[in-house]
Write a structure and sequence with these properties.
Immunoglobulin-like, elongated, mainly beta
Length: 426
């Protein structure tokens, strides 16, 4: 019995039922043509389950429902945390990447390991959901429920500050680890570095503020952080300020050294110094090579302290004075009036509770650096912000005076001499 033959390039009829669903699955979803353009972002209609619900046998998904089809983004959710929708979901308590699925007008979430019994779960959808026309929603929401644990009643409040810059850390990661089970609850700070999230269970927490540089919602090595231990009961619990910095157990080391002026050298370190660190002149030594002749040291100070003690005097204020040749001044015209000060109580300025961090030391000597010489600068007892102490050393080379003088002199005045000699001959 011979098998039926089909023409080349045609699909057999019995394959249509198989190929049609595949073609529809690969079709790209586009907004319908015609009609007025949609400029409204997706609007959140409902969430499930209900807030603060107690569901001991829950095995479903947390849903966020919108009034239109939302976009999956340019990067799909694959369980690695790099998908556009995965970045918008913060699920606690878990250390893994949640299972986030796009279902047209719904976004569903569940932990990769499944819901665990007797826990309080917090699922936060951050602002940033877009529709097919890329209209972005600034609305976020939180779903909190339990799988058998008592209803939560604690709210953690505080602020995360980047200690290096002295500024609040917007969109910093906050990880509140509940003891003794080490259950991590996570949230993000607002643009002012503040956080207030809950409800979470009562108990003792280690709260960490992290500068999440790679935006993976995890605390990674070499990222600046700070922690605070808090015992939280019903109601708001004040965490306070978390001053983040990179924790390093290695002692400081010199990365570069430059001559700041004829009597000072600036040592730049690879780590920030401990705040309020002080040195005596005997803590620093300077020798000139090759014979290691010592040079007397006048001071060794962190750069902000050295700036405050050795800043140049301000120039005299000439505002309101007549410039030379001003005819109005010669006629005896009165100087211009300055605007009257605004009356009313002065607004108090917020003073940082900690001094700023610096990674620079300034060593000053009693006699100027000699051009063309090389110096070895050593400072002992240098402690980084983590508390590790060590000795730092750097080599300073002063360029020859001829090169420095020619750079400052500008055009060579000797070029005019042949002209004057020729003028005498003429």
């Amino acid at each position: 019995m011979s098998m039926p033959r089909h023409r080349r390039g045609r699909v057999p009829p019995h394959c249509h039922a198989v190929l049609l669903p595949l073609l529809l699955a690969c079709a790209r979803i586009e907004p319908p043509p015609g009609g007025p353009p949609d400029a409204e972002p997706p609007r959140l209609l409902a969430t499930a389950p209900e807030s603060l619900a107690r569901l001991p046998d829950f095995d479903g998904e947390v849903e966020f429902r919108f009034d239109e089809v939302v976009s999956e983004g340019g990067s799909a959710s694959t369980g690695t945390g790099t998908g556009d929708l995965e970045r918008l979901v913060v699920l606690s308590p878990t250390t893994g990447v949640p299972d986030v699925k796009w279902r047209r007008s719904r976004i569903t979430v569940r932990p990769d390991e499944g819901w665990q019994p007797n826990r309080v779960y917090r699922v936060e959808l951050l602002p940033g959901v877009t529709d097919l026309r890329r209209n972005r929603s600034d609305q976020g929401t939180v779903v909190t429920f339990t799988t058998g644990a008592p209803a939560p009643s604690v709210r953690l409040e505080g602020q995360v500050i980047d200690w290096t810059s002295g500024r609040p850390a917007g969109e910093a990661l906050v990880v509140a680890t509940l003891l003794p089970d080490s259950l991590p609850y996570r949230a993000l700070t607002d643009s002012a570095g503040r956080f207030s999230f809950g409800p979470v269970p009562e108990g003792e927490y280690i709260v960490a503020g992290v500068l999440d540089q790679n935006r993976n919602r995890r605390a990674d090595g070499r990222e600046a952080f700070d922690t605070m231990r808090v015992r939280a009961k019903t109601g708001p619990a004040a965490v306070g300020e978390l001053w983040t910095f990179v924790h390093d157990t290695a002692p400081p080391r010199v990365t570069s050294i430059t001559s700041r002026d004829s009597l000072a050298a600036t040592l730049e370190l690879g780590q920030p110094l401990a705040p309020r660190l002080t040195f005596k002149p005997s803590d620093a030594t300077v020798v000139v090579l090759p014979d290691s002749t010592p040079v007397p040291v006048k001071s060794a100070l962190p750069k902000p302290v050295d700036d405050s003690l050795n800043a140049p005097a301000p120039k005299p204020d000439t505002a309101g004075r007549a410039a030379p040749g001003d005819t109005a001044a010669r006629r005896g015209a009165p100087p211009p009036r300055r605007p009257a000060p605004t009356l009313g109580p002065a607004k108090p300025e917020k003073v940082p509770s900690r001094p700023p961090l610096t990674n620079q030391l300034v060593v000053r000597v009693d006699r100027p650096w000699q051009p063309g010489s090389t110096y070895v600068v050593t400072v002992r007892g240098v402690r980084n912000v983590t508390g590790t102490t060590g000795e730092v050393r750097g080599t300073l080379t002063i360029p020859p005076r001829a090169a420095a003088d020619s750079a400052r002199a500008g055009p060579d005045s000797a070029a005019a001499r042949p002209d004057s000699a020729r003028a005498r001959q003429e």
